[in-house]
């Protein structure tokens, strides 16, 4: 066990995804800040992401001339979140988001964020904006990172498919690269990779440090002002998944390997309250030939059917809503949609970009979409007729044909009588991504009649679990009786979510994870 003066910090941040923003804010205020990261890379799932940030009322939105106000965003969150998170926590988020972006933009390492319109996910609710509230970091030149570059978690497509790392960092890579550099340039920051939290050190009821394992050796670090638990969710922990999300398991998640719920457990062990542990940021996943899912935002054509060969939802719902629908249908119906069969015709295959466009963060992975490879891996089936296809995927033949006939009828009239597909701005946006595929009356409803026919496998995947340690409005972790555990903060997927059970718009997870890490840093900075 090592402990010496060098192990004393003001602030310790556990986990290096959205938590890096809190680390930067603390270090920029002169606090000696240590980030410990369990894996060999900095960035977590945040570095895999598109780095959309849902932060209503921020400066980038204002520059784009968006008519957003805090009142409008409050109305929207009140309507869709309801009682699943305290209104005061939402208020803290709405206040901190714009302030945080204003502060980050003052540092050229972050540069200006940019607003790109992604419709809010609950169209028609009070305060929902058709153009959304999502902002993104600008691309970043990898070379600027110098010696820090090898620390940044590789892009998903490099880890999974061996695609060469590009000189320009995009999305989450750019966000993490920028944040890491800004943090280190404060002169007050230290990052230790391969260093995982094992337990929290408590003295007189307050958290004063962490015990960790660094490259296999036990180490202790003390924090004069506090510890932020920003270690993601528990998506990669099979036991916790069985406990809190028994139907889902850990095999389909897209969260990063380090996210095994260590910080959640450490918080529970010292008496922290938790909330919404049964929730995830859900996303249907298209299973590809390595038999793992990819985050697939929406179908360009075709329909989704359950084990009975029936549709059960609008296949263009925003991904988290689609995931919740899958779960609901699984729980309430005898014909489970887990997995779902995505049935489409040759048109979808002929439009390769219709697959690629719906993958929010994939570059051109050479040859990734090879029909024969999909079929050989058993994740795609092909048949000349719908009845033959039904036999291949094990659904009643007559039922599948009937479902397709009925859907084709809706496509011809332009009205999806069952699920209203093609009515919301998000539905329409996904048409633009893949290009129009029908000149029929509803651009989201193209007929399925041009064989051969296909069925792909869609599973209930997630971008991380969502429930976690309960906090107050300053991101301070609380006990079940509401009292604050002094010195302990939580953010990101380690924290019980400000958005309750819903995903308000693109960038919900990262926007809130950054904002609460920032709030925690501010709280510590004002402590004497
Ligand atoms: C392909 C993809 C695209 C996405 N796109 C978006 C998007 O555009 N916008 C958006 O808002 N969300 C997006 N998401 C979801 C989002 O990326 C995550 O939900 C979010 O990044 C989680 O942030 P976090 O800081 O809580 O955790 P992470 O970013 O995962 O960081 C947690 C870190 O903590 C480390 N850690 C875990 N345990 C310990 C320990 N014991 N000690 C030390 N360190 C530990 C982990 O190794 C990890 O590095 C996307 C997800 C995926 C997979």
Explain what you see.
Helices cover 32% and strands 20% of the residues. With 528 residues, it is α+β, with helices and mostly antiparallel strands. It has 2 domains: 5-278 and 466-525, 3-Layer(bba) Sandwich (FAD/NAD(P)-binding domain), CATH 3.50.50; 280-462, Flavocytochrome C3, Chain A, domain 1 (Alpha-Beta Complex). The strands form 5 sheets. Strands 1, 2, 8, 9, 10, 11, 20 and 21 form an 8-stranded mixed sheet that branches. Helix 5 packs across helix 17 (508-525). The longest helix has 19 residues, at 87-105. It is globular. The model has no long low-confidence stretch (mean pLDDT 93). Flavin-adenine dinucleotide binds next to helix 2, strand 9, helix 9, strand 18 and helix 17. Flavin-adenine dinucleotide (FAD) binds at residues 14-19, 36-39, 44-46, 48-52, 156, 196-197, 230-232, 254, 256, 258-259, 262-263, 281, 295, 360-361, 463-464, 492-493, 507-511, 513.
Looking at this protein, list some descriptive labels.
single chain, 528 residues, alpha+beta, FAD/NAD(P)-binding domain, Flavocytochrome C3, Chain A, domain 1, eight-stranded mixed β-sheet, six-stranded antiparallel β-sheet, 17 helices, binds flavin-adenine dinucleotide
Strand and helix map with partners:
Blueprint (H helix, E strand, L loop, with lengths): L7 E7 L4 H10 L4 E4 L7 H5 L4 E2 L4 H5 L6 H12 L5 H19 L8 E2 L18 E3 L3 E2 L14 H6 L6 E2 L1 H15 L3 E4 L2 E9 L2 E9 L2 E13 L8 H7 L17 H8 L4 E2 L4 E8 L5 E3 L7 E3 L13 H14 L7 E6 H5 L2 H4 L14 H6 L3 E4 L2 H8 L3 H17 L11 H10 L18 E13 L2 E2 L6 E3 L5 E7 L17 H18 L3
Parallel strand pairs: 1-2, 1-11, 2-8, 11-21
Antiparallel strand pairs: 3-5, 4-5, 6-7, 9-10, 10-11, 12-19, 13-14, 13-18, 15-16, 16-18, 17-18, 20-21
Helix pairs in contact: 1-7, 1-17, 4-5, 5-17, 14-15
The chain binds flavin-adenine dinucleotide.
Flavin-adenine dinucleotide (FAD) binds next to helix 2, strand 9, helix 9, strand 18 and helix 17.
């Amino acid at each position: 066990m090592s402990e010496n003066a060098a192990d004393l910090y003001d602030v310790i941040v556990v986990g290096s995804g959205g938590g890096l923003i809190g680390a930067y804010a603390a270090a920029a205020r002169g606090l000696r800040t240590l980030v410990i990261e369990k894996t060999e890379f900095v960035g977590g799932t945040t570095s895999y992401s598109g780095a959309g940030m849902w932060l209503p009322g921020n400066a980038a939105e204002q520059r784009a001339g968006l008519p957003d106000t805090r009142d409008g965003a409050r109305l929207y969150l009140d309507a869709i979140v309801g009682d699943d998170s305290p209104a005061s926590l939402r208020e803290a988020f709405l206040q901190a988001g714009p302030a945080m972006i204003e502060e980050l933009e003052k540092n050229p390492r972050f540069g200006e964020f940019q607003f790109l319109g992604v419709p809010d996910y609950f169209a028609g609710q009070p305060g929902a904006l058709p153009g959304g509230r999502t902002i993104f970091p600008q691309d970043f030149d990898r070379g600027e990172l110098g010696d820090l570059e090898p620390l940044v978690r590789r892009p998903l497509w490099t880890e999974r498919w061996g695609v060469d790392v590009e000189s320009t960092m995009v999305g989450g890579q750019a966000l993490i690269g920028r944040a890491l550099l800004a943090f280190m340039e404060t002169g007050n920051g230290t990052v230790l990779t391969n260093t995982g939290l094992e337990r929290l050190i408590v003295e007189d009821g307050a958290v004063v440090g962490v015990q960790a394992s660094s490259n296999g050796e036990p180490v202790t670090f003390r924090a004069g002002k506090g510890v932020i638990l920003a270690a993601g969710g528990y998506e990669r922990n099979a036991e916790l998944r069985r406990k809190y999300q028994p139907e889902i398991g850990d095999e389909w998640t897209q969260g990063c390997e380090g996210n095994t719920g260590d910080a959640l457990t450490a918080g529970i062990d010292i008496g922290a309250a938790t909330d919404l542990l049964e929730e995830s940021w859900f996303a249907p996943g298209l299973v590809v030939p390595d038999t793992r899912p990819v985050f697939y935002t929406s179908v360009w054509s075709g329909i989704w059917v359950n084990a009975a060969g029936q549709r059960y939802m609008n296949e263009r719902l925003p991904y988290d809503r689609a995931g919740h629908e899958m779960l609901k249908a699984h729980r309430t119906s005898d014909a489970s949609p887990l997995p779902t069969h995505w049935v489409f015709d040759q048109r979808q295959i002929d439009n390769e970009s219709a697959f690629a466009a719906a993958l929010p963060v994939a570059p051109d992975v050479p040859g990734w979409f090879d029909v024969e490879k999909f079929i050989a891996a058993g994740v795609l089936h092909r048949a000349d007729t719908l009845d033959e296809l039904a036999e291949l995927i094990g659904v009643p033949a007559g039922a599948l044909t009937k479902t397709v006939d009925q859907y084709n009828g809706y496509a011809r009239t332009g009205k999806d009588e069952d699920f209203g597909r093609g009515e919301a701005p998000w539905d329409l946006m996904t048409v633009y991504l893949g290009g129009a595929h029908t000149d029929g009356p509803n651009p989201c409803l193209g007929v399925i009649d041009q064989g051969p026919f296909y069925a792909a496998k869609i599973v209930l995947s997630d971008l991380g679990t969502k429930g976690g340690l309960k906090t107050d409005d300053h991101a301070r972790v609380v006990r079940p009786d509401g009292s604050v555990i002094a010195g302990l903060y939580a953010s990101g997927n380690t924290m019980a979510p400000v958005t309750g059970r819903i995903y308000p718009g693109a960038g919900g997870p990262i926007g809130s994870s950054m904002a609460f890490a920032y709030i925690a840093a501010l709280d510590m900075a004002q402590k004497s």
